[in-house]
Amino acid sequence: MSAQPAARFAVLVPVKPPAVGKSRLAGLDGGAARRRLAESFAQDTVLACLRASTVSQVMVVTDDAQFSYVLSALGCTAIPDGVSGDLNGTLRQAASEARRRWPDLVPVAVCADLPALRTDDLDELLGDLDTTRPSFVPDAAGVGTTLYVAGHDEFDPQFGPGSRVAHLASGARELTDAPASVRRDVDDPADLDEAVSLGVGPNTAVALLAADLTS
C-alpha cells in the first residue's frame, strides 16, 4: 500500500455571499434555489478540500458572517473579505494571513463553485506537484481558472475574465491533465448538468432534490 502524500497545502476558498453569487442560475425559482445551490457548491468544495490528505488547512474568505459560521462548522477557518470587489487582492491578503498562521504550508486558491470536486482528484493533482513555480488549472471551458497554486513569494493570482490567458502570460504553468472534477466549475444550468453527470457532493445533491432539478 503506497504512503499518503504529505499534507503541505493551505487551501484558500473565496466565497461570495450566496445572496449575490451565481447570478446566471437566478432563473431557477426567483432566487431561493439559486442561493441554496450557491451555498451547497461552497460547502461541497470545502468538504472535498478538508478531506484531502495533501491539505493541512482550509481557509474560507467571505463577507457573509452567517454563512461563515456554517462553513467553519465543517472544520475550516473563516476570515472576512478584506479587499471587497477585488478577488485577486482578497486572495493575496488571504495568502498573507495563511503564511502568518501556517508558514510551512503552500497556498492554493480554489474556486468555491466546484460541487463535483473529488478529494481523490485533488490529492492526485497536488500529491506530486512541483511548487517551485506557480501553476494553475484551467476551467472546463478552457477560458477561466479553477485552481491556482504558488509559493508565498510568487503568489500572484490572475482570476477574472480570461484568467487562463492572464495566468499563462504571468508565467504560470498550466496543468492541462487535471482531473475533470477539478475543472468543472458551475456558472450556468449547462455547467450544472455537467457537474451532475460527474457526480456532485451531498449538499448539492440535497439542494437539487429540494429544487426538483434532478432527472
Automatic annotation (TrEMBL):
Superkingdom per UniProt: Bacteria
Protein's name in the database: 2-phospho-L-lactate guanylyltransferase
Gene assigned in the entry: cofC
PANTHER family in the cross-refs: 2-PHOSPHO-L-LACTATE GUANYLYLTRANSFERASE
InterPro entries (UniProt xref): CofC, Nucleotide-diphossugar_trans
UniProt-listed Pfam families: CofC
Species the sequence originates in: Nocardioides endophyticus
NCBIfam families in the cross-refs: F420_cofC (TIGR03552)
Matches recorded under Gene3D superfamilies: Spore Coat Polysaccharide Biosynthesis Protein SpsA, Chain A
GO molecular function, one term: nucleotidyltransferase activity
Keywords carried by this UniProt record: GTP-binding, Nucleotide-binding, Nucleotidyltransferase, Transferase
